[in-house]
Amino acid sequence: MASSISSKPFLSGSFSSSNSDARYLSSAVVQISVRPVSRRRLQIQAAGSTYGNYFRVTTYGESHGGGVGCVIDGCPPRLPLSEADMQEDLDRRRPGQSRITTPRKETDTCKIFSGVSEGVTTGTPIHVFVPNTDQRGHDYSEMSLAYRPSHADATYDMKYGVRSVQGGGRSSARETIGRVASGAVAKKILKEFAGTEVLAYVSQVHKVVLPEDLIDHDTLTLEQIEGNIVRCPDPEYAEKMIAAVDAVRVKGDSVGGVVTCIVRNCPCGLGSPVFDKLEAELAKAIMSLPATKGFQFGSGFAGTFLTGSEHNDEFYIDQHGKMRTRTNRSGGIQGGISNGEIINMRVAFKPTSTIGKKQHTVTRDKKETELIARGRHDPCVVPRAVPMVEAMVALVLVDQLMAQYAQCNLFPVNPELQEPLLPTLEPETAEVPF
């Protein structure tokens, strides 16, 4: 019996078995209605390699692959941009800078492949690529068999069931090249638009702690930070920190430390209430960096030792008629929204996981063993983490700046309560930003 499918409904019921009916059924085409099964489509956004909503950055590449880089989507058009704008920060991040960093030799020379024409951004995705040129994959032959303690080797296997063995793959700090390159673009936007500056420096290496009152955040300069190989703006404490790194470096060990980051001239109003508070966004971005283990904002944990009357930042009106706070224990953010004061935060970095000392571990086939890791690694990641922290902070602020402009500056602001994000331009020198 032949059959076909049509949209005509199939009528069920009892049939009489007369001869004419039997002859009819033997020659008739049976029509069956089939209702398509509606299946719910499962959309999985699982990758973890993209940050931002309006200024979106995706990093790619692995430590010992062909190269690393990023794609920046949402960058405003007509921003003057060249490789040199990114190269300055990439040079601060690159390996082989001094004896207290990894000896791996990479120039980290970047190339812009799209999104820039005749020296300005076009508003389309910007593709930045940095080749890997000094690879030694054979240094990681042992790591293909055994897991390095406190590294991501084991958890990558647990998650994916496969991993790039050489250099740690995506878990390597080499992934941060894409962050630093895109962060340089973000810093330029902030500087051009609002005069905002993002500066980070090393405030602790192992047990050497820089006293907070030694650094004036109002006058701190990049030249002070870059004045020594450990990136501590105080020369005396810088020497102590370098000695602390040297002491463990010669033993094949490592130490951690703290990076302090400040933001000057941040526009008021960045950040949103409840789940998208500015310090929450900063914490997420900062803690996504490799080797981070702690984040403090404003007074941080020290504020828990104060009373409310001691901790509160009282308001006053300055000589320019602007509302300010006499102290800044809130760290420049109140209620999850920037208030115009200096934003300050501290980030704790653990000792480098890969060290040259024998350690107990297990193999991929679940057998206990001992491992002496080879390869070239920082005895202290903190000095090279400085531009990484700056980059992530800048990426957060640009994304939040765009969100604030779209939501709260689409219509004229309330001049009695708000400050316009767009700078006031003098008629004779008026120029549109960018």
TrEMBL record:
Reduced FMN (FMNH(2)). One of its GO terms (cellular component) is cytosol. Gene3D superfamilies: Chorismate synthase AroC. Its cofactor is FMNH2. One of its GO terms (biological process) is aromatic amino acid family biosynthetic process. Keywords: Amino-acid biosynthesis, Aromatic amino acid biosynthesis, Lyase. InterPro entries: Chorismate_synth, Chorismate_synth_AroC_sf, Chorismate_synthase_CS. It catalyses: 5-O-(1-carboxyvinyl)-3-phosphoshikimate = chorismate + phosphate. GO terms for molecular function: chorismate synthase activity; FMN binding. Residues 1-20, 82-104 are annotated as: Disordered. Pathway: Metabolic intermediate biosynthesis; chorismate biosynthesis; chorismate from D-erythrose 4-phosphate and phosphoenolpyruvate: step 7/7. It comes from the Eukaryota. Its EC number is 4.2.3.5. Belongs to the chorismate synthase family. Catalyzes the last common step of the biosynthesis of aromatic amino acids, produced via the shikimic acid pathway. HAMAP family: Chorismate_synth (MF_00300). This is Chorismate synthase. The lineage of its organism: Eukaryota, Viridiplantae, Streptophyta, Embryophyta, Tracheophyta.
